[in-house]
Amino acid sequence: MAGTEDARPFSPKIDRFYGKPKLKLPPGACDCHFHFIGPQRLFPLKPNHLFSHLQFEDTPIEDWLKLQDAFGLSRGLHVQSMMYENNYEIALHAQCRLPDRLRAVVAPSSGITDGELDILTKAGVVGYRIAHRVTKTIDARLVARTHEHGWSMHYLVKPDEQEDWKPQILKSPGKFVLEHMGGVDPAKGIDGAAFKFVLECLDTGRCWVKLSPRISQQQTFPFSDTDPLVKKLVAHAPMRLLWGSDWPHPQYFKPMPNDVALLDMMLDWVPDEATRKRIFVDNPAEAFGFPPP
Q: What global pTM score does this model have?
């Protein structure tokens, strides 16, 4: 962590005291979107990263395990934070610590070697994260190279702002994932062009979409402006949906939301128990190669 002389404000800190969720999760339930941060004395954030105007508390593996235990989760897809940029060290460390419980998505540099890709794949890395806030173009060569290793492409994009990405996303080889419900604006609703693009991606049969309230324009819970979008996705393609907590919510929610309340949103979003099991257990297993629970 930065020294006491650092005057930068902290991003909102997480609440480490969890109540009991109303939602009882099935065995093998997976959180498909979260980030490890630190300990920064061992895994420092990239200098001058995207959110370097703020400080961030450590939210390491030990904190994540407490969250998993409180929720009844047993698996996770670790998504490398943009604050680490191309440094995959923390992801590799986590995979070596929890190889059966974790899979990972990283953002390798264009110069990564085939030997490194082999090591990461064997350790449990399954995806290449492509974030519009970090790169303005899609590296087609790296897409092809990671696809050869069996990785899926994971896009963090706002279709309204990245029109030129749409054809390339649809042409992704093999599996691909849209993070945070495709980054659509809830105010434009289910008839908006960006949301129609999300449905078009789902209709390829190769795309998975992560349910998340992160796209909400509301400042506090219950983030109800996302409800119509979620209901449409669940009706359209429940076999292609995933759930992600986005823990520890870096540089996004102000104030920090209650993680238990975010989980329990799934009771309203997906009232059918069998469909919830598909989203929490079956779909992640199919998408990322988790063994049967």
A: 0.95
